[in-house]
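Q: Could you fold this chain for me?
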Amino acid sequence: MLALIAGEGGLPPAMVAALRAQGQPDPVICQMAGFAPDLPDDLRRKHFRLETLGTLLADLRAMGVTDICMAGRVRRPDIDKGAINAATAPLIARLADAMALGDDGTLRAIIAVLEDAGFTVRAAHDIAPDLLPRTGVQGRVQPKDRHIGDATRGEAMVAVMGRADSGQACVVRGGEVLATEGPDGTDAMIAALCVPSVQTAYDGDPFTWVFEGVMDLIRGDAPAPAQGAILFKAPKPGQDRRVDLPTIGPRTFMLAAEAGFDAVVIEAGGVIVLDQPQCVAIADAMGIAFWVRERGAS
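A: Sure. Below is the predicted structure, expressed as structure tokens.
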């Protein structure tokens, strides 16, 4: 039986949909306090805090859970020492030390705790392989020669960022790095390069949002600040790919169109793409090359 430690974003619902399409049993949803995954109400849920993780693991074993997958955005919570229960106390010292090392260290420590408790930790793309797109250009728009050099520059930059545990994406134009991903993620990085009036106009309807932004560009009302740039996204060097694999989706492509990007380039086998048909459709409509690139390709 599978348990899904589910955070925010589109990955948990995509995984549940994939499991149901495969005819697999629904996973048990483990929902940490402060995070509300967008999942069907009929799924079994276990609510927990990091301070009660030991109890959660014991409950999952009693339910017959053997495999655990972590999916979705979860910020590192502050630990309330007064809320730590007896089953979790032996684990907290390990987790607290790891959390001081950054996101990668925290995730490695959590994996170790889960495995020591007898669970198999599985990657999202192991459960739903279609989350990883095939290698090559997706859609009709081909990358140009200048994008090849920018992708090489982006790969080098993301490698440096990854070793510092500081991000998994950057924006490059003409060999110059225009922006790097921060704690708020890739979409926030791109949004900072978009037209301010369009950013504030977003009301939750992505189709209206991108349409209005593109019409501004067509009318010449708001020049694209990053015209001709590329987004490059890849995993961290040496990353355990069972957790925190970088993810993009339709909103990423909408923002890329607003910012005037020429291409979205991701590392083959290393970046999850949510709703791939819609991503390709947006890229084709907006003249953006969508390149799933092998590491080191030239």
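A (continued): Confidence is low (pLDDT under 50) at residues 197-204.
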